Predict the structure.
Amino acid sequence: MAGPKQRKRVEAETSSLKRARDGSAFIRCEECKKDVPVVLIDMHSCSLEAKIKLNLEAQVVEKVTDVKKKPAEKKNATTAEPKPKKSRRLRKVKDPNMPKRPPTAFFLFMDDFRKEYKESNPDSKSVSVVAKEGGEKWKSMTDEEKKPYVDKAADLKAEYDKAMETYNAENGEEEGGSGKEPDLELIDDE
């Protein structure tokens, strides 16, 4: 008796992907209100008009696929080729005149704690150990011990709120946004 027939592996040689305009692999069908995989739009059960509309909304994204290489070939290929650039994204342009947010009570405590810890442990260079010790001490403190830091943080917050009011008045913006789109800049993720 012969076992099941051995299947031969076939590798797809596609150099492009289909995606929705927002970059996702799914698109919402307006007729049936279901999410449909972009590559399976042709098999969707809605009317021909809906399929055509979905196909128009989908776009082809170019993607170069590497042919599978042996591990030795991969090592040689990666050292000779330059690394590809990371993706780009948009972010708000930061105004240098905008007031800086005040530290929280915990961060005010950590400033004092770091000084004390450095004095008692001058040979300790690890930032993570100092942060861990400070966090443990903050958790073990009572509300009365935390009160000076909380009060100072509240005062700094009040000063920040006043500074933001004057900043917004000078720039003609209301708190929570002015209704216009913010300035954006293109940055590289590295």
